[in-house]
Amino acid sequence: MSEAKQYDDKDQTSSLEKGAVHDYVVQHSDDRYHFDAADLDRVQRKLKQRHVQMIAIAGTLGTGLFLGSGHALQAAGPLGALIAYAFVGSTAYASLCAVGEMTSHAPISGTFPHFAARWVDPAFGFAVGWNYFYTNAISVPVEITAAGILLTFWDKNMDHQAGYTAVICVLVCAINVFGVRWFGESEFVFSIIKLLLITVLIITGLVIDLGGGPNHERLGFHYWKTPGPLNGADLEPNHPSLDKFLGILSVLVQAAFSFQGMELVAIAASETVSPRRNIAKAVRRVFWRILLFYLLGILITGMVVPFNDSNLLKNTGTAAESPYVLAMTRAGIKVLPHIINAGIFTSAFSAGNSFLFCSSRVLYGLALRGQAPKIFTYCTKGGLPLAAVLGASCFAFLSFMNVSNGAATVFNWFVNLSTVGGFFGWWSMNLTYVWFYRGFRAQGIDRKKLVYYNPLQPYLSYWGLFWITIFILINGFSVFWKFNAAGFLTAYINVPLFIGLYAGWKIIKRTKAWKPHEMDFVTGIPTVEETEIPEVPPRNFGEKLFQIVF
Fold this sequence. Notes:
With 550 residues, the protein is mainly alpha-helical. Helices cover 62% and strands 0% of the residues. The protein is built from 22 helices and no strands. The chain has helices spanning 3-9, 49-58, 63-66, 68-105, 111-119, 122-150, 161-177, 180-209, 222-225, 240-250, 252-259, 264-267, 275-304, 323-331, 336-368, 386-393, 405-442, 459-474, 485-492, 494-509, 528-531, 541-549. α6 (122-150) runs antiparallel to α15 (336-368) and α15 (336-368) crosses α16.
């Protein structure tokens, strides 16, 4: 069948819209590349502007910030935690700007793993895709487990844990099976709850710090003086300055976990209404989100709780270990901890929901390009990639491993193995952007004509690429002081796994890296006119407010 005929027969509700598919710049008939997947791609644009903007603002606010910030504070001190979060935040921002600009050019299924295959090397895209799928798929049971543990704040009977886990699993899977519109609505509600929660926590923390709590004790920066701004890692007790530096390094992975998933808006591009305009708006807001919620949240945490508080060492998994709850307890506030635990529960549930969405869409994108079994390309008439959703949902039930003590150890291995996977995802976004930038320049395409572009590129991606490489190399540095094989393997096994995926596909398929003039920036990519709905100007105060917020 000719390409023109395929275009005429194509379901016009597809996310690819197909207008430019037959206007080839570079043609590749070789089945090793699978760039023209438009005849298979059946997802539909059902995520609206308000969905995307709320997901961008609060979508990844989760247990990593609400609970993990306490571990960061204990390990590095208030200044050390702030430095680590700011540093990792800058690389997360660089990565999102990179994938945001590439998505502005190509808002299609497969997202950045497809970009990696299309503009770097098909083998690189294969490795990136499967690494990112695994990282997100294994994060689903992690968040379900966290949600189940949060319920022990009210129900201490551990025999009920299996029942809670089952209910949460079914609900998370059901939301994704019902379709992207249900996912969008649920995340819209969860994001509002998380936004309110972090806002209340920051304001409450500030009130406590200024002496507004029941005990009326004004703290200021007292805990930055006693016990101090930095805490050591207890690896070099004879060299305090070095030990404090190692303390900052020790929380980089924890900080990265808090930022993980920021690229969700780009992954959802192929199912978003007016993706270029909405993703451009979302990416531009991320800088302020990092500054306001993450860094201000960490700053307030360090002002109201000392890093040597014995309760920070407790690993309850509930709001009891949240630094905000500890601050309220110290100040004599009794009611809010229950509200906070409920809010953190919804954030854990939301994170599991989002990770399942991400993993299913990446699996679907891999299948479209022939890098995963073709069965995962199956879509319902409503545009839901059902086979990919069901395939990714299987991982949710790994959360039952935590019900058994023996299996919990194996489960923790899975968790640790996936930790560095997020770093590899960010690293690949920045590397792919550098190649994308070179290709645009070589082919004389003006990136300033994109709906979103960042004037700091490509230097942002150079920054992200360099530091994320360092993060990958040092993430398990503590094992070199107190060596154990299990710790070393869980910290670094992802490196040979990624290289193995890349080398295996390259050898089997004999792929090659793309030269700048060979890169295809046209095939299967819809034009701006095909994806963007004209923006209706606000007519009254309510609509103006809606436009500002969303």
